[in-house]
């Protein structure tokens, strides 16, 4: 749905949302749910309305989901919410003095309040050789659809990066019957986000699945050779592949904010609910750098579905001048083949976790003063639901019972007293 920019420019309490992803959708839904009656414009540079990104490295690659399955707000729903979506339009500059956003089509749009939800983009690799442009990246629906088509024509795939995107992509390639080599420069998988014991579980499972995982290894060059193959120097070996995919991190799309004079440091600096130094500008989602009340005492970005959803909603409350707070501990999940991994809170690799093992299920808890303040579940999604409740209700747990897989976590929820401390998860 597109409206003429001039139709909304002079609306009372007009909100402009720059971005068209998960966080942007959460903002506009919450604004209307909380009674905002002014105009809302959404600038979506991608050319689509809001959609979910997690299926891109799972169902979309496998062909079990279609782009329509990822839609967050349909055209009809956006119409009901009276959101003017400007698809394929990118913001180029913010004039804070006059509260204007200049667009790449030569027009401008005014705002009373502005939300920056511009997300990020894949970090690009620069390699020796003539085939850097042949490397595939995964961030958008178009990326996923193009990669799926390339996988159909490939037999040998090189995946660069042992983080979430790399591992999920590698698993999809294996499920499609491809020969997969995965290269990670660090000494273990997902080194920045999980402790060594979880990295070891993932490594064992992926190698058992037939993925050739090479740790502490780098790619040095990539050449396009006769016949269309890609020749890579990996470590000390020369190997040939039909397809190379990189998942080596994300760069925050914070240039728009930085050029407007807003403080940035690997993201737009803000508080937990998206307030910036400009009282009329807010930020949320992957591009927001903030100090989480339960996390490290420094600004950081949280790149997850959960953060985009919850911070987007909290940002809308703050924008409306209502009481706003970041609701609880962050939660993240990854589906890697048959493995379901979920993370709650900020697991501290420097602290030894409490371990609960039950067959293929592995659960790791981090405790503080008798309370759970972080957890990782491997193939235990139902248990994570209970753990969230234990955290939310501030239940002081018994260490021996927590470790005993014969005792149901639900039993702990029912029998152990909750404290009167405000909920933290």
From TrEMBL:
Query: What InterPro entries does UniProt report for this protein, alphabetically?
Result: FAD-oxidoreductase/Apoptosis, FAD/NAD-bd_sf, FAD/NAD-binding_dom, FAD/NAD-linked_Rdtase_dimer_sf, Reductase_C
Q: Gene3D superfamilies, per this entry? A: 3.30.390.30, FAD/NAD(P)-binding domain
A family per Pfam:
Pyr_redox_2
Which Gene Ontology MF annotations are present?
Answer: oxidoreductase activity, acting on NAD(P)H
Which cellular component, as a GO term, is one annotated location? cytoplasm
UniProt keywords (A-Z) are: FAD, Flavoprotein, Oxidoreductase
Q: Which residues form the FAD/NAD(P)-binding domain?
A: 14-312
Q: Superkingdom of this entry's organism?
A: Bacteria
- Provide the cofactor list for this protein: FAD
Keyword Cell membrane present in the record's keywords: the answer is no
The residues covered by the Reductase C-terminal domain are 331-413
Return the PANTHER family for the record.
Answer: APOPTOSIS-INDUCING FACTOR 1 (PTHR43557), RIESKE DOMAIN-CONTAINING PROTEIN-RELATED (PTHR43557:SF2)
Stated name of the protein:
Pyridine nucleotide-disulfide oxidoreductase
Source organism per UniProt: Paraburkholderia phytofirmans OLGA172
